[in-house]
């Protein structure tokens, strides 16, 4: 009986791993589609229609939960701050990929777990040992390698990616503080907030497109929503410490999609910096696993 139970448990974990990999692939596909669209349409327009498309997935979840729970929220100030951080994360990501290769932008976002570890110590009171602080410092060095902060090389697009990745980490930390709020409420309000900000950005920047273009924008929201659901389910089937490192496959897919669809080859400094960031992030995950377990919120949620 115990052998059968162990076999079932292993199969569930394998299923969780496969769901995590599929969810990350969907997120990478979402990001590549977004880069393709912002080449022809404004960032605000793409993100606004994308936000509307997200409700194709969110709608049934809201109906099942009941709309009343959407309006009974605790800690309104933190809720608002999280919406702002999420809006910055999403909008700056798409603003960055207008001009930068997908792999470059994704490399900056791979530093999310490093920022989360540092912010968790400062704002959540989580104890971070000297080994993880060293890994955080090394990870920051990797970010500097990618950023190349000189007057000749520093670009506004790189700053978009950097600030967006920090906003992404802030949103994760705020999600921990708001873990008593249902996932449906959190995702609904962040989608509304992002959509409103994007709507303001479309003023004077709306470009008419064909039906297939708007269909692709709506599909962005659907793909992102499905990816979120896949990863959420995966975290219920397998330990977060097992799944967290798999998220770095996003960087691999970003390189692959960038080369195939946009003929973008990552610069050597991006590859070197990304390698440093990934190794530092993996060590942080390892130490979290040694000291306790990796909270599900520490797993990056695909940027967008």
From TrEMBL:
Entry protein name: Multidrug DMT transporter permease
InterPro entries tied to this protein: EamA_dom, EmrE-like
Record organism: Aquamicrobium defluvii
Residue intervals passing through the bilayer: 12-30, 36-59, 80-100, 106-124, 131-147, 159-178, 185-204, 210-231, 243-262, 268-285
Domain EamA: 15-147, 158-284
SUPFAM superfamilies linked: Multidrug resistance efflux transporter EmrE
A Pfam family that the UniProt record links to this protein: EamA
Entry keyword set: Membrane, Transmembrane, Transmembrane helix
GO cellular component, one term: membrane
Ribosomal protein among keywords: no
Top-level taxonomic group: Bacteria
């Amino acid at each position: 009986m115990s052998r059968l139970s162990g076999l079932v448990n292993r199969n569930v974990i394998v299923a969780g791993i496969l769901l995590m990999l599929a969810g990350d692939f969907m997120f990478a596909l979402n990001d590549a589609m977004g880069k393709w669209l912002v080449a022809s349409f404004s960032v605000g327009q793409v993100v606004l229609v994308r936000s509307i498309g997200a409700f194709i997935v969110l709608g049934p979840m809201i109906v099942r939960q009941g709309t009343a729970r959407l309006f009974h929220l605790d800690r309104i100030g933190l809720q608002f701050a999280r919406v702002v951080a999420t809006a910055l994360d999403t909008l700056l990501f798409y603003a960055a990929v207008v001009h930068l290769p997908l792999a470059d932008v994704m490399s900056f976002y791979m530093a999310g777990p490093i920022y989360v570890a540092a912010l968790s110590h400062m704002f959540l009171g989580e104890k971070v040992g000297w080994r993880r602080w060293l890994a955080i410092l090394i990870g920051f060095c990797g970010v500097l390698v990618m950023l190349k902060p000189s007057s000749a090389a520093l670009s506004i697009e790189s700053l978009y990616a950097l600030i967006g990745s920090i906003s992404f980490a802030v949103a994760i930390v705020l999600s921990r503080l708001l873990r008593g709020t249902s996932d449906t409420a959190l995702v609904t309000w962040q989608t509304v907030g992002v959509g409103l900000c994007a709507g303001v950005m479309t003023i004077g920047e709306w470009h008419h497109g064909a039906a297939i273009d708007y269909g692709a924008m709506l599909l962005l929201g659907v793909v992102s929503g499905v990816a979120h659901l896949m990863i959420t389910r995966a975290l219920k089937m397998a330990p977060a410490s097992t799944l967290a490192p798999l998220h770095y496959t996003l960087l691999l897919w970003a390189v692959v999609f960038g080369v195939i669809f946009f003929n973008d080859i990552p610069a050597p400094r991006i590859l070197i910096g990304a390698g440093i960031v990934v190794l530092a992030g993996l060590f942080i995950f390892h130490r979290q696993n040694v000291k306790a377990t990796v909270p599900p919120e520490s797993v990056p949620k695909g940027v967008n």
